[in-house]
Amino acid sequence: MPTLIAHPTVIEAAGNKPKLIREYVGRVNSRTPGVSVAHMTSPGGWIEPGQTPDFEEYTLVLRGMLRVTWREGTLDVHAGQAVIAHQNEWVQYSTPEPEGAEYVAVCVPAFAPDIVHRDSE
């Protein structure tokens, strides 16, 4: 039988400004360890600490621009584009433009604080 996800759980976000994370599928909302699906809304000027996660992260930008920094450079991902951040590679996410960004992130396996390995804040 299919499982209806009636509503998301709001998760506290890391970073210098409040960012809204709505987890639909994942360890918290649906008790799903294999994958997480979250709808993110981050304000202009938001930046989070770098991380070296134990998961792949697939991100589809719906509105605005998401900046992804990695050891060798920076990639700006605009609305209608997607990016894959690979497991065990250092990345840092930010939304430097004034309008911020809205995007969907899918993590395999599901996001968890103990496997994201954030840099010290």
Structural overview:
- The protein has 121 residues and is mainly beta.
- It has one domain (9-116): Jelly Rolls (Sandwich), CATH 2.60.120.
- 3% of the residues lie in helices and 46% in strands.
- The protein has one helix and nine strands.
- It has one helix at 113-116; strands spanning 9-11, 20-25, 36-42, 46-47, 56-70, 73-78, 82-85, 91-95, 101-108.
- Strands 1, 2, 3, 4, 5, 6, 7, 8 and 9 form a nine-stranded antiparallel β-sheet that branches.
- The longest helix is centred in the last third of the chain and has 4 residues, at 113-116.
In summary, what is this structure?
The chain is mainly beta and 121 residues long. Helix content is 3%, strand content 46%.
Helix-strand blueprint:
Blueprint: E1 9-11, E2 20-25, E3 36-42, E4 46-47, E5 56-70, E6 73-78, E7 82-85, E8 91-95, E9 101-108, H1 113-116
Antiparallel strand pairs: 1-2, 2-3, 3-9, 4-8, 5-6, 5-7, 5-8, 5-9
Total count of helical runs of at least 4 residues: 1
CATH top level assignment? Mainly Beta
**Could you list the spans in which at least 5 consecutive residues all have pLDDT below 50?**
none
- Secondary-structure-based class equals mainly beta
Task: Please describe the biggest sheet, giving its number of strands, its sense, and whether it closes into a barrel.
Answer: 9 strands, antiparallel
Supply the CATH superfamily name. Jelly Rolls
Tell me roughly what share of residues is in helical segments: under 10%
DSSP strand content: over 45%
User: Average pLDDT, to the nearest integer?
Assistant: 97
Instruction: Tell me the distance between the termini.
Output: 43 Å
Number of domains: 1
From the coordinates shown, what is the CATH architecture?
Answer: Sandwich
Q: Tell me the total number of β-strands.
A: 9
Oligomer: single chain
CATH topology name: Jelly Rolls
